[in-house]
Amino acid sequence: MTPAAEPRFEIGLKAAIGPFNYGDGLQPGNRTSASVEACLLCGCRALVFEYSHWSKPSASYPTAYRSADTFTGALRFQGRQRRARPYVDVGAAIGNARWSTTAFTTAGGMVGAGLTVSPSGRFYLRFSGCLLLMSEFYVGIDAAVGAGWRL
């Protein structure tokens, strides 16, 4: 009997928390984010694309910061184990941040790392962290938990 073909595509959702703010250290607290992720050619190396919507930051005082969006594209270097696959992502990011009535675009790089756990079959859980270093001195950091399906 031949083993089943390794899934080559993944699609998943994740929830995260962390800052995505101007890097001068004067911004309010964390934001939550919701993301959708697609992985193409998911073997040892993969192409990963992710869209994230970041909420308005939590703050104990009035702030003009509003929601933000980011889109990342990265190369994923991933272990080949079936049940637990550590990985590292390296790529580029584009963001749209809104402050008061102004919106502006930032661009930069990203690096992330995590662990994908497949308890059974094609379903997976993913635990990850990511650092975005953007133009306009924007910095994003998140810690996330996600789930998805390997196609």
Molecular structure report:
The protein is about 0% helix and about 70% strand. The chain contains no helices and 9 strands. The chain starts with 8 loop residues before the first strand and ends with a strand.
Please give the structural blueprint:
Layout: E1 9-18, E2 20-22, E3 31-40, E4 45-54, E5 65-78, E6 84-99, E7 102-120, E8 123-134, E9 138-150
Antiparallel strand pairs: 1-3, 1-9, 2-9, 3-4, 4-5, 5-6, 6-7, 7-8, 8-9
Indicate the low-confidence ranges by residue numbers: none
Determine the strand fraction and express it as a percent band.
over 45%
**Number of contiguous helices:** 0
Helix content: under 10%
Q: Kindly state the mean pLDDT as a whole number?
A: 88
The order of strands across the largest sheet is 1-3-4-5-6-7-8-9
Q: In the CATH classification, which architecture applies?
A: Beta Barrel
Separation, N- and C-terminal Cα atoms = 21 Å
Number of domain modules: 1
Please give the CATH class: Mainly Beta
Q: Give me the secondary-structure category.
A: mainly beta
